[in-house]
Amino acid sequence: MLQDPLFIIVAIACLAVAGILLVGIGGFARGGEFNRKHANRVMRYRIAAQAVAILLILVFVAFRRMGG
């Protein structure tokens, strides 16, 4: 499975979602100017990245079921 390029792309997408989430949580915890300016934007990026990751997971599962 680790040699499957689609699996690697899915894993990178999931790590990107986790990274964006950690930046958002860190901004909320720290507060201040960064949080005021960028909190909503960071969470919108997380939602978009999460949607892409879910779509890639569904594509991966569909290809695996078809035997690809």
Automatic annotation (TrEMBL):
Keyword Lyase: no
Stored InterPro entries: Hypoxia_induced_domain
Coiled coil: none
Organism of derivation: Meridianimarinicoccus roseus
KW Transmembrane (keyword) present: yes
UniProt keyword terms in alphabetical order: Membrane, Transmembrane, Transmembrane helix
Pfam families: HIG_1_N (PF04588)
Annotated ranges, domain HIG1: 1-68
Name of the protein described by the UniProt record: Twin transmembrane helix small protein
